[in-house]
Amino acid sequence: MTEGNTQNDQTGGSDVFNVPVIIAAAHELKAPLALIRQLSLSLEQGNVSKKEIERIAEKITLTSERSLRLTTDLTRSARLEDSLFTLEPINPISLCEDVVHELSPMFAARGKAIAVKERRRSLLAVGNHDLLRRILLNFADNALYYSAPEAPVVLSVSRIKNGETIRLSVRDYGPALPMTVWKSFDSSLGKRAQMLHSRPESSGLGMYIASQFAGVMGATLGATRHRDGATFYVDLNASTQLRLL
Amino acid sequence: MNAVRPVIALIDDDAWLVDEYTRTLNKAGYRTVSASNALEGIDLIDTAHPQAIILDIFMPGPNGIVLIHELRSHTDLAQIPIIVATNSASDIDESAMAAYGVLVVLDKTTMKPDDLIVAVRKVLP
């Protein structure tokens, strides 16, 4: 795989009627749709202050946007086999900042924070900008629900394996998963859409979709369990462009 | 005045849904306390001694079923009536849950705000 190439990878994608994915998607869309419905019913009932109306409207907008992101990801993952994805040098810090900018309103509305860990040296990774962005959005969206308000979710970029690999990580601080659940999750990370009831909102399908996107770019996903949360990461080939300068 | 208003514990990881439950129940004259996961929920119930609990099932960390089992092991907490409000109500055997103090199962996907009040009135002594 070389930079600037396009790739039509046959490993990604899923059947149109992939039943586990359909079930997982239905499950994951249920919660935001139920929330939107409850918020809408609150507005319908009336007797709500102007400030409350604005607050509820913002929640409806943000929840809808989150759900739409999932439906777009599902569509993309189902059509990976038919698509061409340009692999190009990407500035991962800049990409992380874009993700933080996009998700900040949702985090702020939930009373939480998201940030990028500063890094002095520039790095370049090889990947597809849109797919990598979607992977990070999935990680960060997952982290949103498991992070404590006082500890921001942190996106960071590091160089590993003698600089040949660039790792983009999303670290959350929240209730740790029980080890038995973690083992089951870790061994099946991205291999199938699975319900993970200790992380009910998005670990299963989001990670499955992210792994589909990673596969197309030749990237790999991983996760680390911490006493106080988890780190989800994607490893990509480092670009040689900076070394040639 | 507050002392005579029944306290309802809301245990759900969706803070925005908890906001809505709180508004609905406060308007109906109930006080509320809340926790976002089962572990916090057990501590909350232990300290607040609510008159009823509205409980989600799937939450980060131990789920709502774990909390129900924990409550059953404490004689002073085992008698608190539980209302389960979940997106997976269709997967739950309501009659089996009754043995664990779950008196009402609400389906979040179809319930209306007033259903919460009706359920609370039904379970309160």
Give the biggest beta sheet of chain A. Answer: 5 strands, mixed
Number of beta-strand segments of chain B = 5
Question: Strand order within the widest sheet of chain B?
Answer: 2-1-3-4-5
What is the overall silhouette of chain A? globular
Q: Please list the strands of the largest sheet of chain A in the order they lie side by side.
A: 4-6-7-9-8
Percentage of β-strand residues of chain A: 15-25%
| CATH architecture assignment name of chain B | 3-Layer(aba) Sandwich
CATH topology annotation of the domain at 6-12 and 85-244 in chain A: Heat Shock Protein 90
Span from first to last CA of chain B?
19 Å
Describe the structure.
The complex is a heterodimer of chains A (245) and B (125). Chain A is of the alpha+beta class and 245 residues long. Chain A has helices at 19-45, 50-78, 92-109, 129-144, 179-187, 203-217, 241-244, and strands spanning 6-7, 85-86, 88-90, 114-116, 125-127, 153-160, 165-173, 220-226, 229-237. In chain A, the strands form three sheets. A five-stranded mixed β-sheet of chain A has the order 4-6-7-9-8, with helices on one face. In chain A, strand 8 and strand 9 (229-237) form a beta hairpin. The longest helix of chain A has 29 residues, at 50-78. The radius of gyration of chain A is 19 Å and the shape is globular. Residues 1-15 and 195-203 of chain A have low confidence and may be disordered. Chain B contains five helices and five strands, in the order βαβαβαβαβα. In chain B, strand 1, helix 1 (15-27) and strand 2 form a beta-alpha-beta unit. The chains are: A alpha+beta (245), B alpha/beta (125). Chains A and B meet through helix 1 of A and helix 1 of B.
